[in-house]
Amino acid sequence: MTVGYLAVVGLVTLQALRGQSIVMPDAVTLGLGAAIAAAMAAAAVVIVARGTARGR
Amino acid sequence: MIAVALVVELAIIVGAAAAGTTSHFNVSTPLATAMWSLIAVSISVLWVATFVACLVLFRNPLGDRARTIAIRGGALISLVRFGLGYLMTSPTAAQLANFGGIAGVHAVGIADGGPGLPVLVWSTVAGDLHIPHFVGT
Is B15 left (phi over 0), alpha (psi -120 to 50) or beta? Predict the structure, then answer.
């Protein structure tokens, strides 16, 4: 999750340095944001599944 | 050390706001330059102290694995967040060409002070380095 949060910080930094407003993200920003969200959701599923398996 | 550096910075920011002037990047008068220099020193001390705190946290046991990852992750994010602040401290070409006492900018591509979100004042028409600096907090 630390990696995901740092990725979000990196994404908003990249967006700002490209001169793009936070309220007007382009396709690249949206795509990267979606990729980060998907990766973090997948990581959360894996973590929960491992925890459930250990609990049995 | 971290707390002292933050108190110094916040005291100057509040003082400048109360005086109706800008604290950051303001080198328009000898007093403003001295205050901005003091902020620059305090944030540099803050970054170094946070870096040292990170080293200590990464070299010592912190309990169970989840707790260790959470604490070290938070420290690392703080270090990155503080470091991103330095991206804003260089004067732009426009500021150098027509110097008006401000050397540094939050916005990217335009001057500070344009249209922004309510309360947060993040630019709605250009890039704004306030955002990563804030998100990393």
Answer: alpha
Is residue B4 within 8 Å of B84, Cβ to Cβ?
no
Q: pLDDT tens digits for B76-105?
A: 999 999 899 999 998 888 888 888 888 899
Residue B30 pLDDT greater than 90, yes or no: yes
Dump pLDDT digits (tens) for A27-42.
999 999 999 999 999 9
Partner B contacted by A18 (CB < 8 A)? yes
Token pair for A19: 């001169």
Give yes or no for A40 touching B (CB within 8 A).
no
**Contact residues, chain B, for A12 at CB < 8 Å:** 131-132, 135
Give the closest of A8, A10, A21 to B127, CB-based: A21
Residue A25 CA to residue A19 CA, distance in Å, equals 10
**pTM of the entire structure?**
0.85
Distance separating alpha carbons of residues B64 and B78, to the nearest angstrom:
21
